[in-house]
Design goal:
The complex is a heterodimer. Chain A is of the alpha+beta class. Chain A has helices at about 20-30, 40-45, 65-80, 130-140, 160-165, 170-175, 210-215, 245-260, 270-280, 300-320, 330-340, 345, 365-380, 405-425, 445-465; strands spanning about 10-15, 35, 55, 60, 85, 105, 115-120, 125, 180-185, 195, 220-230, 235-245, 265-270, 290-300, 320-325, 355, 385-390, 395-400. Chain A has 2 domains: about 1-235 and about 435-490, Uridine Diphospho-n-acetylenolpyruvylglucosamine Reductase, domain 3 (2-Layer Sandwich), CATH 3.30.465.10; about 235-435, FAD-linked oxidase, cap domain/gating helix (Vanillyl-alcohol Oxidase, Chain A, domain 3, 3-Layer(aba) Sandwich), CATH 3.40.462. The chains are: A alpha+beta, B alpha/beta. At the A-B interface, strand 1, helix 2, helix 9, strand 15 and helix 11 of A face helix 3, helix 5 and helix 6 of B. The structure holds flavin-adenine dinucleotide and iron/sulfur cluster (2 copies).
């Protein structure tokens, strides 16, 4: 039923699950009339997320206020077998909140409180609808540090971050969301409420359900509360830009830095078209004549930071960097990081449709991957700009195209299939941080194999036997045929 | 089986859809609609989304609604109309959007279409719009008459009578509140009072045409006079072309494009004829439309070129003073000393930015030390008094000032640093940044009259932040914002401690002394 995602426009209406008035009535009774909506305006505005070319109307939108309401809602929907899609801010890039089988979109925004910051245990307990940046700012105000900082953090929610296991600019040194979630409260498909983990740095009582729910993309349970680990903030940091006339030199620098046993806090890569659009937006005076730049940040105590930055500068020079410069102060550094965060959207300045992928390879293979992407783009006659968390081996090759041109979209689709294949051949994966959702479901088997898919399906079945939690995601009806790479 | 868009459409295109839908489909720029890639970057910048948390109340949601109408997925019902009217038109979503989606244009296209078909305005909105848009704003002489009438009303005791007799009670509360804070009106505009030409003090840098604004010139005539004097001090000849008229902003933002276009042509002709180098605006809302005359008249072959001229020559008075005026050299020296150029390709990282976006605190690139007035004072031959240590008089009492951005000045004219540079450089004044100064105050043209509930909610949050600054002067750069700030100060019982002023008036008082 679900076609390969790149079709324009791809719109279904979930008539199959047209909510009976009875269901709507029950939901209204739970949340109050004003917090269940099924008018055209609400349906249209919950038919999409940050993924291009996907749109499907839900049958209703519900805004719960607390865990008890979530549980009651799920019970009603389970009884009537109505699909439910949990939604944070709808910024995901895998079609994760597009209600492909209709049903109810459950918006978590009203559950947005910080319940506790425990200064003795260095933990925070929060509700899932909390805005990521608001949370980070809050704990920083208390002299603490929550590292996961997806580029979308000004918009995204903690619940969405957990459900996608989001990474960010600080992932290289500090890890991703999974490394900071130590306890969860979640509502299961039958409405029952479970608690996993706790304010515990160790816990091996049974299977690790906390980690299983992290990255589960709303397909196993609805997360209603999270306990997060906080750490002391670094004492100082320094930010630098390394500029290259040669793409390959920039990519090789990434591997060289890691090989030299330096782990910077941030190590980001931007190619020339990305530099141009970002500068067009942020007006920072970035060097438009460079083929690539690396944005590098190191933090820690002053002595280590200085030593590492000096060493990194040497490595850059060794790989033929044209110039290396250091941000004058924190304000300037912040501007650079903020500009980098705009890269994906800024690329939309070039063409109407921007399709971004998330291939990730071992860090030593970054240069090979960059070359492979450029080669594949050329062969398929498509424009692919590349930026990403290079230090994590995580690149975002981004096709700038036009959804109205079916022929070109087909070529983009073919190019991405080859990019996935190339990533896997280098020992990598089809997605490093954006998740599988709808758009990468046909490729999941390439990475995890048939047996892997079977285990995952069994897990899904034991959590959600009637498949009401975000149905249609993660598992495709049929896997896509693998492409044979033409090398040479 | 998957359904495609065409399966969902009514069998014959456009068959079942309303007239409004047809109008919208042809009016909305489909390229702009598809340029929105739904990343959500604009959400935190949007006041109505922040107040409600509802996707439909966000720029991304509103664009999706417009696109759904254009795609034939949705008939523009009353809710659609309401949603378009709920938007403040503050355009904070535009600088926040890395994809450069022209939300303002889409909104205008949507509102224009709605306006052509609407029947649902409340009576006072309809009546007020009709009188104001057709009968009043286009005619500066009538505006002046209105000013006279208002002055009569205010001065003769008629106001007392009306208030005493409780006549104001006939109007909704929010209109009563506005009536209470209206400044004294004047039936003589700036030209009638001081004449149309004013030479620069010292050597002339350039000739500036003052855009006097229709409301500005009736309710804030003094501000116009002060603008002229400041510009003269800074080295500009100032002319005030008499045939200029209302900028057309209220028309354009309320879906009355034709009216707006006619007014635009009148202004373009007036300033062209005056042979000016710059067109200075002291009202962000007006200036923002002037800089978009090129867009407004882009399909008018005859006017296109002159409109583009007008758009590029229009500049906010703060920016003109900071970047081109005689206060410039000292100010720039101070800025240059503080901001390093890291990437080495010209622009400094700190300097060229157009101000803060979602989450990036607005801050000057470097502490701009007080502008030395000496060059300026010498050249101008006198703002009188001993100007040491900064703009203005050393003897002035030390005051704390803060600033509420004019949305259109910031988001459309993209001028947020210049006013701050000026304020930081005033001697004996401590500038404190107002939290969320970049967020709309709820005035938004006539929004506070048409959408009182949302406007009130936004204003209340604004005043909380204002309280925290502990400032004696709350400065703004737009008459609408100024009235709204006065309204807020009054409503929140702060009139004892704080006064709202136009930035120009404050600067004038500090630089040229009290008159
Ligand atoms: C411009 C831009 C930049 C981005 N940068 C990054 C980046 O640097 N790193 C990165 O990893 N990602 C990035 N993303 C992707 C996206 O922002 C993240 O996946 C983010 O975590 C999604 O958060 P959200 O609140 O928007 O969740 P949504 O998009 O609303 O939901 C995401 C998924 O989580 C599920 N979900 C949401 N809330 C719950 C809940 N309470 N319980 C169970 N399931 C739930 C949804 O069903 C869905 O499957 C970016 C996206 C954009 C548009
Ligand atoms: S920031 Fe721009 S592209 Fe992103 S959702 Fe908003 S309008 Fe669309
Ligand atoms: S103009 Fe202002 S209120 Fe309207 S969508 Fe943009 S940010 Fe929101």
């Amino acid at each position: 039923m679900i076609h390969f995602p790149f079709h324009y426009p791809f719109i279904l209406k979930g008539e199959l699950y047209m909510l009976q008035q009875a269901v709507a009535g029950k939901l209204r009774a739970i949340v109050g009339a004003q917090w269940f909506k099924d008018d055209p305006e609400s349906l249209i505005t919950h038919s999409y997320d940050g993924t291009p070319m996907l749109q499907t109307l839900p049958d209703g939108v519900v805004y719960p206020e607390n865990t008890a309401q979530v549980s009651e809602i799920i019970k009603v929907l389970q009884e009537h077998r109505v699909p439910v899609v949990s939604r944070g801010s709808g910024t995901n890039l895998c079609g994760g909140t597009v209600p492909v089988q209709g049903g109810v979109v459950m918006v978590m925004h009203r559950m947005n409180r910080i319940l506790e910051v425990d200064l003795e245990n260095l933990t925070a307990t929060v509700q899932p609808g909390l805005n990521t940046k608001a949370f980070i700012t809050h704990v920083e105000g208390l002299g603490l540090f929550y590292p996961p900082d997806p580029s979308s953090m000004a918009i995204s929610t903690i619940g969405g971050n957990i459900a996608e296991c989001s990474g960010g600019l600080r992932g290289l040194k500090y890890g991703t969301t999974k490394d900071y979630v130590i306890g969860l409260e979640a509502v299961l498909a039958n409405g029952e409420i479970i608690r996993t983990g706790g304010k515990l740095m160790k816990d091996v009582a049974g299977y690790d359900l906390t980690k299983l729910l992290v990255g589960s993309e709303g397909t196993l349970a609805v997360i209603t509360e999270a306990t997060l680990k906080l750490i002391p903030p670094p004492k100082t940091k320094k930010t630098m830009l390394a500029m290259y006339k040669d793409l390959y030199g920039a990519a090789r620098t990434v591997s060289k830095i890691i090989e030299s046993r330096i782990i910077p806090a941030t190590l980001e890569f931007l190619d020339n078209p990305t530099i141009r659009v970002v500068d067009d937006f942020a007006k920072l005076g970035l060097p438009l004549d460079m083929d690539a730049i690396l944005l590098i940040e190191q933090d820690g105590d002053a002595e280590t930071v200085d030593r590492d930055i000096a060493r990194i500068a040497e490595i850059c020079a060794g790989e033929n960097a044209e110039r290396v410069s250091i941000a004058a102060d924190e304000a300037e550094a912040l501007k650079l990081l903020t500009a980098r965060r705009s890269a994906f959207t800024a690329l939309a300045r070039l063409r109407p449709t921007t399709i971004l992928e998330d291939a990730t390879v071992p860090r030593s293979k970054i240069a090979d991957m960059v070359l492979a992407i450029n080669d594949i783009a050329k062969r398929h006659g498509v424009t692919i700009c590349t930026f990403g968390h290079a230090g994590d081996g995580n690149l975002h090759p981004t096709a700038t195209t036009d959804a109205r041109d079916a022929n070109e979209i087909h070529r983009v689709e073919e190019a991405f299939a080859e990019i996935f294949e190339a990533a896997i051949a280098l020992g990598g994966t089809i997605t490093g941080e954006h998740g599988v959702g709808l758009v990468k479901a046909p490729y999941l088997e390439w990475k995890v194999g048939a047996a892997g898919i079977e285990v995952m399906k069994a897990i899904k079945h034991s959590f959600d036997p009637n498949n009401i939690l975000n149905p249609g995601k993660m598992f495709a009806k049929s896997a896509r045929k693998r492409v044979v790479l033409h090398r040479g | 089986m998957a359904k495609t868009l065409s399966d969902l459409l009514p069998s014959a295109p456009d068959s079942g859809c309303s007239e409004l839908a047809t109008t919208l489909k042809s009016a909305l720029d489909y390229d702009q609609l598809t340029n929105c890639m739904r990343c959500g970057f604009c959400l935190p910048a949007c006041p109505t989304f922040r107040e409600t948390g509802i996707e439909a109340e966000s720029p991304r949601g509103r664009i999706a609604l417009m696109k759904a109408v254009a795609d034939g997925l949705m008939d523009p019902d009353e809710a659609f109309e309401t949603q378009m009217n709920h938007c403040l038109g503050c355009r904070a979503c535009e600088p926040a959007c890395p994809a450069d989606v022209k939300y303002g244009q889409l909104l205008e296209q949507a509102r224009d279409s709605v306006e052509k078909h609407t029947t649902t305005h409340r009576w006072w909105v309809k009546a007020a719009r009709k009188t104001a848009f057709d009968g009043l704003f286009p005619h500066q002489n009538r505006m002046r008459l209105l000013g006279g009438a208002l002055q009569m009303y205010q001065k003769t005791g008629l106001r007392k009578l009306v208030r005493g007799a409780g006549l104001m009670k006939m109007f909704p509360a929010h209109m009563r509140e506005m009536e209470a804070i209206l400044p004294d009106a004047s039936y003589k505009g700036v030209v009638e009072q001081i004449g149309a030409f004013h030479p620069a003090k010292g050597e002339r840098i350039a000739t500036v045409g003052l855009f006097r604004g229709c409301i500005m010139d009736v309710l804030f005539t003094e501000t116009n006079k002060h603008t002229v004097e400041l510009l003269n001090e800074a080295g500009f000849d100032v002319v005030i072309p008499e045939s200029q008229n209302c900028c057309g902003a209220l028309h354009a933002h309320s879906g009355e494009q034709d009216g707006a276009k006619a007014l635009a042509k009148g202004n373009i002709a007036a300033f062209k004829a005056a042979g000016v180098d710059w067109i200075a605006s002291n009202a962000g809302g007006c200036g923002a439309l002037l800089v978009e005359y090129d867009h407004l008249l882009h399909d008018d072959a005859q006017w296109k070129q002159d409109a583009a001229w007008c758009a590029t020559r229009t500049i906010d008075v703060s920016k003109l003073l900071v970047e081109h005026g005689r206060l410039q050299s000292a100010a720039q020296a101070a800025v240059a000393a503080g901001a390093g150029s890291m990437v080495g390709s010209g622009a400094s990282i700190g300097g060229a930015n157009n101000g803060s976006r979602s989450g990036v605190p607005a801050s000057a690139p470097a502490a701009v030390s007080a502008i030395s007035p000496h060059g300026h004072a010498a050249a101008s031959g006198g703002c009188g008094g001993s100007c040491s240590g900064g703009l203005g008089f050393a003897s002035d009492e030390k005051v704390r000032i803060t600033y509420q951005d004019s949305c259109h000045l910031r988001n459309v004219m993209r001028s947020s640093e210049a006013p701050r540079k000026l304020m930081r450089s005033v001697a004996n004044a401590e500038f404190v940044e107002l939290a969320e100064a970049d967020r709309c105050c709820g005035s938004a043209g006539i929004y506070n009259l048409t959408q009182p509930q949302m406007a009130g909610q936004i204003l209340d949050h604004k005043m909380e932040h204002v309280k925290h600054t502990g400032a004696q002067y709350l400065l703004t750069s737009n008459p609408g914002c100024l009235l709204q700030m006065k309204n807020g100060i009054e409503k929140h019982g702060m009139s004892g401690q704080m006064e709202a002023l136009h930035l120009v008036d404050f600067l004038h008082e500090r630089i040229c002394g009290k008159h």
